[in-house]
Amino acid sequence: MIAGIDVGGTFTDLVLVDDATGEVRIAKVPTTVHNQAFGVLAALDAAGADPAALEAIVHGTTTTTNAMLERKIATVGLITTKGFRDVLELGRRTRPTPYGLKGRFVPLIERHRRLEVAERMDAEGRVLVPLDEAGVEAAARQLIALGAESVVIHFLHSYINASHERRAAEIVRSVWPNAYVTAGHRIVAEYREYERGVTAAVNAAIQPVLHRYIARLQGELAARGFTKELLVMQGNGGTVAASIVAEHAVATVMSGPASGVIAAAVTAMQAGSYAGEFGNVVTYDMGGTSSDVALVLAGQPSVSSDLELEYAMPIHVPMVDVHTIGAGGGSIASVGASGLLKVGPESAGATPGPIGYG
Asked: Across the chain, which distance is largest between two alpha carbons, in Å?
């Protein structure tokens, strides 16, 4: 028996498949916002599933996506090349509202927690300025004193020569009080220091959030006798073992919507084998908070490495190309300052939840 579980902002859904009998069971329960692991257990109970009898659990979640969108993230520090502490704030020459004269952008890492050290590579990967190892250790200790829970090491041109980033990571780990140390080249090894740095910063911001959630979930499942593999969906449609998922936490952003697109593509291809060609489809997934749409061509979901979760937050890791709007089953309708009706993006979520459910 294998259980597929998706934790959304409003509901936690489960599909249980018994290969021996062909039986399929489903369950839908409200998401437990204070501790999403309890919602997973409630879904298992609602489906009559004994965790000890399961061969695997495949878990899709919006934990990291919602944490980013709501900015319920860890306090992050940055160690970067001298002279480049403001790259993550300068960004690109764009505006939040293209036709307006105002807009607000808050970087993930506050300026006083963005520290510089002497080091420099050129665009060919040649060392111009050796790494100041004492400066790296001093910066790490300063960030700890400033309350940083996780840290990003982001050096110029590390995509072509990562030796300075690797050495800096070793130094930081020797003094850092936890495992939340992100070396930028380990997340994205490409040019464009802004996009590479933001992706690494997102990883650092959600790494503690994801790690704590997965640890709680594994503990609750183990207490009920589950001893097999917990697999976590990634935004590219694949899975990764729960034991290592937090290392590349950024890859789980949009994992819930991505799993729906993968399932829709498989379903369409299987239906097409009986009723003609269904290789080209548009997938549609409405939740309580948002609606997600994606395109499948010739049976293959579109995958992109240029996702922008919100303005000035590019995430350059491969993800299923899902387009999201903030209108779901629990969206709150309101009248704006202009007197026009507005629906979403605020949602009733799981508390109190969509009125009338059940």
From this structure: 67
